[in-house]
Structures are given as structure tokens and as C-alpha cells.
């Protein structure tokens, strides 16, 4: 068999989605993302390329960022331009993936492979947590600090990975009608591993995002007059209660807000200082290379040890894009998110709808698309699923998936 970019595409996708298990080797993820992007580029039929209402915000976001990274104030950054390419342009070629039968047949298996990889990673975190009990004595804050310090991954990013893995797993299970007992046990173990990993790291915005998704999905099912088993509703409620009650973080959060401590928090300071810089730039963006320096200067007026010791960014993806590319970039970026939700609802692609909602909420408290771990999962989800909502409305993928 002749080896081509198309024949290598599926193996590359499998390598890409199992790379979270070796997350500490960031260079491997970078290489696999670049390789996937180049393979997608090889599929592109340039004669068919047209600017449409669907792809214009993605193209606009890329070119606005590229303009700022190349010409606006600071020195150019090819690395940041490459990241923008992976975030906004490469996923558009996912459209061509849905013209390849082998990809359509493997897509859900690729998603399952990702869930397995993240589940194995959660087993490592669970093991570390158990061994570390003599040090943290079940204190959530100390346990998470130790995990982040030794495992070298921020809690929000790993919880985002876990949240996506849970959504992929539930989507895969829901499409299989006849489960053997052995398969059911395997799925249960995967789910429990992911859930325990989520509880241990317990990122509030990701937990909130998953809760919002559950409510939205149940509402959609109700409108479709699909009756859910009482057992499923009870299990879902118990899982939500367990996630909230097994962490002291939520009770502490209510206490924190009740005592008017929010004004001294790092996020209040980062959001306030970010807005000051945005106003100074007249919502037109500023030199990306100076943003952190200017934020650090603004933080000096706050009585907060963390702000003086650590380099705290804007902690909000929307503010980050306002800082880097002004209101034009924010508008095109929000437009991409709006289109994803609109098309996912229109074509009943509820997995992609759920994932987009999870990102929307995670963007409120973190600069997800600044670190490679965030770029990676955003890229993976868009490449795998964007083509499903951008494909021709008469082209069905379900028959091929079941064959």
C-alpha cells in the first residue's frame, strides 16, 4: 500500500489523542499538532476554498492576531502566529476529514482513545494523592498544591482535559446498545477514574461548566420528549453532590465571598488591571510583549502576596484577546463561538455543543489559549468535530459510523 498523508492521518490522530499520558513531554504534543495541521493542509482543495459566513470569523481571528504579532508595536513572533494557525485555520480543514470514510469510522474510537489516555493519567494522579496523604491529611488546598508542584500541570487544564474525556466517553457509550458485562465494567472503571481525577483537582469553573452542560442536555431531551430513566437522574444527582461535597473548596468559596474578600483576590486584581490597560489602549490592543510587565506594575497597588511573587496574567481569555487584538479580535473570536453553538444546535451535534459550552465557561477564569495544554485540547476538539457542523447538510455521517 502506498504511504500518503491520507493513510498516515488516522495513526497520527491516535498518537495525538494518547499524547496526554506523556503530557510532560510537551515537544511531542507540539510536533503531533504541527504534523496533523500539515496533513490537514494536504487534504485541502484550494480550488474549492471560498470565504463564507461560516469561516470568515475564523480567518478574521487568524489574520488580526497575525497582524498584531507581526506589525503592531513589538517584535514579530512566529511561534504565536503558529499557535493562531492551529487555533483558527487548521480546524477549518476538518471539513475535508468528513469526506474520508476511514476517518468517519475511526472518529469515535479516536475519542475513546483520548478518554482512555486521560483516564490512565488520572490513575497516576489518584496514586500520587493516596501516597501523599501523610503530607496533605485530606486538606484539598495542600493536596492540589502538591499535585501541581510535582506533576507540573495546572489544575484547570487537567480538569478541562478530564471534562472533555468524560464527554467523549458518555458520547461513545450512548451509541452502543449492547454491552457485554466485561465492556460495561471497563467503561465504569474509565468513568470512575476520570471522576476521581476531577474531584481531586476540582477546578470550579470546569465543574460548573459540566453542571451547565448536564442541565442543557436534560432540557434538550425534555423538549424532544425523551423520557430519561429515574435511575439515570438519581445517579447524575449523586455524582454532582459527590463532586461538590467531597471538596472543601466550595464551602470556602462561599465564606470567601461572604466576607468581602473578593476585592483582594488575584482574579479581581488581574481583571481590574486588564481593564485599565484595555481602556488605555482605547480597545485597539497593545504590544503583546509588554502586557505582563504592565500588569505587574498595576498589581503593586494591591495588598496581595501572590500578585507580587508570581507572574499573574489576565486570567480571562476574553480579556486576553482584548489586550492583544482589541475589540476587532474579540468580536471575531466571539463570532466563532456563536457559529459553533448555532451550527451544533442546528445539526443536533450535541457533543460539540457541550464541548463549546465547556470552553466558553473555562475562558471566564483562565487564559486557556495561552498555554500549550489549552491550545492542544482546543485544537483536538475542533479538528475532530468542527467538520461535522460545517459539512453539507445533506451529507450524513451516521450510516458510515455504524457500518
TrEMBL record:
It is found in: Membrane. GO terms for cellular component: membrane. Residues 190-334 form the O-antigen ligase-related domain. This is O-antigen ligase. GO terms for molecular function: ligase activity. The chain crosses the membrane at residues 12-35, 56-74, 80-98, 110-131, 151-170, 182-200, 206-222, 234-251, 321-338, 350-369, 375-392. Keywords: Ligase, Membrane, Transmembrane, Transmembrane helix. PANTHER family: O-ANTIGEN LIGASE, TEICHURONIC ACID BIOSYNTHESIS PROTEIN TUAE. It is a multi-pass membrane protein.
Amino acid at each position: 500500500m502506498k504511504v500518503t498523508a491520507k493513510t498516515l492521518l488516522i495513526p497520527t490522530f491516535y498518537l495525538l489523542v494518547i499524547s496526554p499520558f506523556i503530557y510532560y513531554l510537551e515537544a511531542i504534543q507540539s510536533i503531533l499538532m504541527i504534523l496533523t495541521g500539515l496533513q490537514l493542509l494536504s487534504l485541502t482543495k484550494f480550488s474549492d476554498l471560498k470565504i463564507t459566513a461560516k469561516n470568515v470569523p475564523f480567518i478574521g481571528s487568524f489574520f488580526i492576531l497575525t497582524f498584531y504579532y507581526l506589525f503592531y508595536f513589538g517584535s514579530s513572533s512566529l511561534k504565536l502566529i503558529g499557535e493562531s494557525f492551529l487555533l483558527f485555520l487548521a480546524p477549518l480543514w476538518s471539513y475535508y476529514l468528513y469526506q474520508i470514510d476511514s476517518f468517519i469510522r475511526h472518529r469515535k474510537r479516536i475519542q475513546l482513545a483520548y478518554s482512555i489516555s486521560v483516564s490512565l493519567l488520572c490513575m497516576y494522579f489518584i496514586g500520587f494523592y493516596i501516597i501523599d496523604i501523610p503530607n496533605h491529611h485530606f486538606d484539598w488546598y495542600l493536596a492540589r498544591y502538591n499535585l501541581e508542584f510535582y506533576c507540573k500541570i495546572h489544575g484547570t487544564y487537567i480538569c478541562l482535559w478530564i471534562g472533555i474525556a468524560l464527554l467523549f466517553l458518555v458520547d461513545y457509550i450512548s451509541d452502543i446498545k449492547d454491552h457485554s458485562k466485561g465492556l460495561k465494567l471497563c467503561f465504569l472503571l474509565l468513568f470512575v477514574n476520570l471522576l476521581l481525577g476531577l474531584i481531586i483537582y476540582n477546578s470550579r469553573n470546569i465543574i460548573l461548566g459540566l453542571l451547565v452542560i448536564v442541565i442543557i442536555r436534560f432540557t434538550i431531551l425534555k423538549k424532544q420528549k425523551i423520557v430519561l430513566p429515574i435511575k439515570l437522574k438519581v445517579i447524575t444527582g449523586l455524582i454532582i453532590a459527590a463532586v461538590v461535597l467531597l471538596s472543601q473548596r466550595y464551602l470556602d468559596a462561599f465564606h470567601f465571598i461572604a466576607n468581602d474578600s473578593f476585592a483582594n483576590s488575584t482574579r479581581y486584581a488581574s481583571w481590574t488591571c486588564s481593564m485599565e490597560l484595555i481602556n488605555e489602549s482605547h480597545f485597539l490592543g497593545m504590544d503583546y510583549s509588554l502586557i505582563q510587565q504592565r500588569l505587574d506594575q498595576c498589581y503593586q497597588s494591591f495588598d496581595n502576596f501572590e500578585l507580587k511573587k508570581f507572574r499573574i496574567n489576565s486570567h480571562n481569555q476574553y480579556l486576553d484577546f482584548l489586550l492583544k487584538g482589541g475589540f476587532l479580535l474579540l468580536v471575531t473570536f466571539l463570532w466563532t463561538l456563536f457559529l459553533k453553538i448555532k451550527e451544533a444546535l442546528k445539526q443536533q451535534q450535541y457533543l460539540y455543543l457541550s464541548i463549546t459550552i465547556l470552553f466558553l465557561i473555562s475562558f471566564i477564569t483562565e487564559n486557556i489559549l495561552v498555554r500549550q495544554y489549552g491550545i492542544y485540547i482546543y485544537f483536538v476538539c475542533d479538528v475532530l468535530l468542527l467538520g461535522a457542523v460545517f459539512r453539507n447538510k445533506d451529507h450524513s455521517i451516521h450510516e458510515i459510523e455504524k457500518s
